[in-house]
Amino acid sequence: MLALVVLFGWILNPPTTWTILAEGTSVKRQWTRADDIAPVMLRSVVAAEDSNFCLHWGFDMTEIRRVIARGERRGASTLTQQTAKNVYLWQGRSWARKALETLYTPMIEAAWSKRRILEVYLNVAEFGPGVFGIHAAAAHHFGTTPDALSARQAAALASVLPGPKTRSAQTGSRRARAIADGAATIRRDGRAACFERD
């Protein structure tokens, strides 16, 4: 497991995932370096999926405790956990998958930078049925490239991530507007410092 974490963290970009192989792609994938993704896209995905990304070591214990205390059924997975699942494991709920995800997560946090975690996540995440990776998503939804995404487009793409099969990238939706506000907030308050380049 550690060898795979080092391999995909330092040597090689993950060529595909179990999910991509199982579902197939409808839009051509192309790996995009974090340096070639609009910074607002990085902030938007953090605002949408894991606003405390820079403050935890792979598990957001505050959020986990909050979900348990409220008796909610939703998950409290961090971007690092989602990256572990998307790159190394399979979709679906099972104790075996969750146990492996729990092992991979701290290894990823120890071996990869936060910027690398976001880069890998954005290149394997599904942004619509058969639309995997930020390059395909930018082209498919907005006819543009990842480096040219506006704040509204980035927020709209991030808004589909919890349910890429059922949600659409709408720039004016309430969720997209909230994500755009969140992305601006984490930039102002320093919660983007661990992955932003000066």
Which residues sit in consecutive blocks of at least 5 with pLDDT less than 50? none
Termini separation: 33 Å
Main beta sheet strand tally, sense and closure:
none
Topology as a string of helices (H) and strands (E): HHHHHHHHHH
Oligomer: single chain
Class by alpha and beta content: mainly alpha
Mean pLDDT: 92
Description:
The protein has 198 residues and is mainly alpha-helical. It has 10 helices and no strands. It is globular, with a radius of gyration of 16 Å. The protein starts with a helix and ends in a 10-residue tail after the last helix.
Question: What can be said about this structure in brief?
Answer:
This protein is mostly helical and 198 residues long. Helices cover 55% and strands 0% of the residues.
Features:
198 residues; mainly alpha
Topology (elements, then pairings):
Elements: H1 2-11, H2 18-23, H3 39-49, H4 61-70, H5 79-88, H6 95-111, H7 114-124, H8 134-142, H9 151-159, H10 174-188
Helix pairs in contact: 1-6, 3-9, 3-10, 5-6, 5-7, 9-10
